[in-house]
Fold these 3 entries.
Entry 1:
Amino acid sequence: MYQHEREGFSHMDFSVATGTKTVPNSMFHLSERNRQAVEIIKGYALAHTLTDVGIGVVGTAVPIPGAGFAAMVASMLVQAPLFYQPMVRKLAEVYAAPSDALLQGLVTRETGIGVFGDLASEFGTAFLRKVIVKILWERNVSFAASFIPVLGGVASAVLDATFATTLTWRIGKMAAIYFHYDGWIHTQEETYERAKAMTPWSLHQEDNLADIPARNPEVQDKQRVWIATLVQELKQRLPERSTDHVRMMLEDQGVSAKMIDAALQ
């Protein structure tokens, strides 16, 4: 149905129709952006985990109770420029990329910085220190375990891996929430708490970026407003198009059917 009309809607036609740039690029083909973001986070989580476990093993070789744990904490504070900041920049590239570049695998560093600025700079040592303190309060039993003779080395290795995996996924999801919302939800600290709620303490993390709108009402409401505004803009700029035509244009640009339905209500 309407297949011949659908084929007439080029990306250029859509771009002209939405010349006022009502909606950020991140809303188009969002499922593909989330898929690529998950792969980025997985890669950095693995690299971070292997690095921290190695540092922890070196720490446990020192005959001081808790040395492995201390080495892990120290390493976390210097990881920002090695893992977290590059990861956030990669995520910015994906979420900021124009649809054509995204689908063709042509995202660039300049795209991310141009749209979101250097968001990665906000994930520096000062921020990490606050987050690490929060996690230490969460995991005080594991902290104590690292001081137990014999078991300390094993406990620290498990703790290192879980800590690195959990923290990397929390920061990755925190950045993803930012890109879904086009800003922090209230504050950076509050956005971290939202990411924490989606990222339990575990070596095995869920690929649940698609749940960000449903888990965060502010994100869902803002995205609904974006698409509703876009629908009105399309109707004004292309008055000859019916509601069905507008729906097809949005579908072709990767806007979810659920979001379109909400916007058309």
Entry 2:
Amino acid sequence: MIIKGKYYLVTALDWFYSPINGEPCKAAWGKAQIITMEETFKFKPLRPSTNWFLKLGMGEGSIMIGGCQIYYAIECAKRPFETKETYLEKGVPRTFNHIYFTEE
């Protein structure tokens, strides 16, 4: 169970792009808030759609992940270590972090 206001490290089923710098990420870390479609939009979606989202972060860099796109969610009060990876894109080395940090 995800508890509102606690910090979580969440891995997604697929890659997503950081809203800050556009880098590809596979996980996100931040303060959690559950958002339901029924509370927010005043209707309950049909079965094939997700009916809740996890919002990570409370500021400008916050993101929302559909409940059906969450692979793992681990309560993680301390900011995890950054893991940098370098790969070649058209012969040019690019370095990115697999974790998107919604807050410092």
Entry 3:
Amino acid sequence: MFIENYIPFGYKNRISRETLEALTRQGDRTNRERMAEALYERHILIVNIDNAYFRPDGSPEDTLRAEAYYRRECTRTGSCKKRCDAIRECIRPKKQDELSKNQISLKQFGIG
């Protein structure tokens, strides 16, 4: 199944998630995975904006919406990386305290 066959051209013809689920008989997560495949494997852009999907038709309006979608996804990528870094810090095994790891013992210093 190629998801792009279910996605109309043009913002004015956009399709809601619910309608797409009904047409494809697939859940939203599966449909989004198929959209990622369309983008990565077949270089087909499906824009997700205003709670609906469409394929840009080349009009100036659709081009502006595709660019807005691109900016939103780039921002999301940055915030996801920041969140992932913070989560990683929370679950990473704690190492020696930052202060104590840079200190030397009296014995190493030659005393004791």
